[in-house]
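The protein record quoted in full:
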Amino acid sequence: MSSITLFKPRSPSRLRLAIPLAAVAAALAAGGLPRLTARAAVARQTATLAEPTVAVVTPTRAPVQQMLVLPGEVEAYQQASIYARTSGYLSHWYADIGTHVQRGQRLAEIDAPEVDAALEQARSDAATAAANYDIARTTAARWQEMLKDNAVSRQASEENVSTMKAKQAMLAAAQANVSRLVQLQSFEKVEAPFAGVITVRNVDTGALIDAGNGGTPAALFQLAEIDRLRVFVDVPQDQAADVGAGTTAELTLPQFPGRVFPGTVARTSGAIDPASRTLRVEVDMDNADGSVQPGAFAQVSLALATARPGLSLPVNALLFRPTGVQVAAVGAGGAIRLVPVTLGRDFGSTVEIRTGLNGSEQVIVNPGDAISAGQVVRINPHPASPA
């Protein structure tokens, strides 16, 4: 005969005790798990902050050539103030401002009647001196012939020879005076000493011209050669060693946007100005079309080249410490090394490193001021690109 086991219900007292226990356990689970999770997150964050993550960059080779941009002063290749060498009155002028003239071209004429009259008198004096010399020479020759026959005394013959020599000297002086006045008369015609453009005209027809005999002379014209120009640039002392004759240059002017004028360094002053600590550099440029005018302002870009370029780093990788400039490199195990470096050329967003690095280092970008040697860091898996 099979036996039947009947379910025996729990007593009401046990159920009343189990329900509060279950509620307490559920409350503890609901409040404790988030705390445990938060504590674990704090622990992970603390471990992460203990080893900060940094961005690194590898040094690259600096460019061989650097463009140094400086202001420049444009001047005529040569310019001269043209003065009169003969006093008188201006009878006519032939060139006004803006006139392009050739070498030897007549610019003005001066009426100097005193010079013309003096020249005529000097020529007459020279003719008289020539006649007197001819007579003295003939007389001296005759007396020397008679001296051979002892017909005259030696003293009388020598006196005639001396008179001839005196007349010869007077003739030479008269001829020299004629040459001087001929040259002075030629100055009545004012001519251009070189090809260029007239930039200033200070005289009008009928004006009294003073060649400096009675006071300070005034320039008649200003002449400038503009088919070639000189551009003067003051190069800072740091870059002076990289600039020399033959260095290429590019010039830009505000009135010609987008246009570049080529030039070449022709010469340097060869000395640093102690007042400005700069080197005076002359850049010659062709200006055959006359588009660039003397006196203009220009931006000059000099192509500075170096035979031994160093490495290049972003400027925000540098640490300026009291002991000098340093960079923070990440070594084995993430430990930081502070490496002293020597700076070279400045490229704006990057700078040349002359010494201190070999090119294989991982240099930290934007290092904090509190960074120290031996500190352990983590490298960002997304490396920073060089600036």
Observations:
- The mean pLDDT is 85.
- The first strand starts at residue 53 and ends at 54.
- The two ends are 96 Å apart (CA to CA).
- The domain at 226-305 is CATH 2.40.30.170 (Elongation Factor Tu (Ef-tu); domain 3).
